[in-house]
């Protein structure tokens, strides 16, 4: 088929985004809602494997956070390391790691990856969290540009502020491959985590 963003593809993308918005609404009202979730910044983990390094800004924990994320592909999966700082009253440090394994679905209309992550916050507010789930999305391509919207539900465990909790968490993301070497990435927390995040990744 032609590598173009036809009207049928555009309609498909619109329908997919509406479905994601509906799922997002469910998580917004049924999600964690606890402060412990602020340990996690947006995952920026679409369903497709990648090897890249990126810089990301989000609105939490605290007033804002800045992180660097390095990811490396190994065969059918990739591993990532992330580190940064958060303005939570006083400066705190973020450190974490993640795993992503895309599933071979044989031409299915969705891309799905199994994910796992751990993230800790050290400083004025301390805690850590573990999460595992699925990243589900689809890539819509046009000449020189592609869009990958995805929804990323996870089961998260938190130990922070003197309490432990197990909750369903999720984020909605959008990866835009602007050039063969650069991605623009957006993340939106659908629970008590950071409300938004944005960044660039270099392949």
Question: What's the topology here?
Answer:
Elements lengths: L6 H24 L21 E7 L6 E10 L2 E12 L1 E13 L8 E12 L4 E11 L2 E3 L2 E16 L2 E15 L4 E8 L7 E6 L1
Antiparallel strand pairs: 1-2, 1-11, 2-3, 3-4, 4-5, 5-6, 6-8, 7-8, 8-9, 9-10, 10-11
Based on Cα principal axes, name the global outline. globular
Distance between the termini: 26 Å
- The helix/strand class is mainly beta
Evaluate the radius of gyration. 17 Å
How would you characterize this protein structure?
The protein has one helix and eleven strands, in the order H-E-E-E-E-E-E-E-E-E-E-E. It has 203 residues and is mainly beta. 12% of the residues lie in helices and 56% in strands. It has a ten-stranded antiparallel beta barrel.
Write a concise synopsis of the structure shown.
The protein is mostly beta strands.
Please give a handful of descriptors for the protein shown.
203 residues; ten-stranded antiparallel β-barrel; mainly beta; 11 strands
